[in-house]
Amino acid sequence: MASLKQLKTQFLEYIEIERGRSFHTVENYDRYLTRFLNFIKNDNPANITDSSVRKFRLWLNRQPTFTKATAGKERETLSKKTQNYYLIALRAFLKYLARQEVKSMPAERIELAKVSERSLDLITHFELERLLNSPNGSDLKDLRDKAILELLFSTGLRVSELCSLTSDINLRSDELSIRGKGGKVRVVFISDGAKKAIKKYLNNRKDMSEALFVQIDNEISKKGKNKISGPLTRRSIERIVKKHAIKSGISKKVTPHTMRHLFATDLLSNGADIRSVQSLLGHSSIVTTQIYTHVTDKHLRDIHKKFHNKK
Predict the structure, then answer these.
(1) Is 158 part of the annotated catalytic residue set?
(2) Residues 258, 123: contact at Cβ < 8 Å?
(3) Is 307 exposed, middle or buried (0-12, 13-18, 19+ CB in 10 A)?
(4) Residues 6+ apart with CB under 8 A from 24
(5) CB within 8 A of 83, min separation 6: which ones?
(6) N or C: lower Cβ tally within 10 Å for the chain?
(7) What's the fold here for domain 4-109?
(8) What pLDDT digit, counting tens, does each position of 211-237 carry?
(9) Catalytic residue among 35, 141, 242, 257
(10) C-alpha distances in angstroms, 263 versus 59, 118, 135, 236?
(11) Catalytic residue at 91?
(12) pTM of the predicted structure, to 2 decimals
């Protein structure tokens, strides 16, 4: 019989090849499962039991977080949301073992920890306008940043999806096919403003990089061109959005995911149905999309305005 370590390797290969999970997801699952296996100190699948999982959850619940902000201070423990990532990976692994007819604990016996309702990081319409207009220069960096912000709000793309775009993007069409989480393909739509910003940016690009959004050095070469040093990373795009939020005088934390939130709430506030928004966002479950209904339900707002005591 294969050991747990061998089965874990087989499982990670399975989710990468057969299930089409991203390398980032595979790395995370590897880290979560390795931590669990190191904790139970056992290599027999049959020894994954209610008791061993409960002990792991208790141990996990008491683990401190490690961030620069908590250095030298009393650290908080792992959030329930983070703890659930470990449990989700373990459940997926146990389901894989069941399919392979390996005797172990049923995945259904693991319940996720209850987490508080997720809050949305939103900015006002006026703040959004200031943010979109923040890159107002004619240099290549400002043209790039303008295109990034316009495209994020136009399409609701995840930052990883934005990073994957190539410079041969078809701007003759309003549609763009995106391969999202789990390798699922969906269609998103590019606004006229976003297309205009991307065209202006690409027309000023003189490099041969395949990536749509690239690192631009401040230094200008002897030929009068900006030096390009590869595609932008997720972290680079996060820094760009943050920089322009600060420049726009927005005190709230603004990230690429904030733009995704704004995309969804804007659609729902203007009458789009939740199933369509689910498809545009690429959510596998409508439960994930329903978070936006709490802030966009015009009917409830109108009821409150009409019937609530105005004294």
Answers:
(1) yes
(2) yes
(3) exposed
(4) 160
(5) 57, 60, 61, 113
(6) C
(7) DNA polymerase; domain 1 (1.10.150)
(8) 999 998 875 544 556 677 789 999 999
(9) 257
(10) 39, 17, 20, 21
(11) no
(12) 0.69
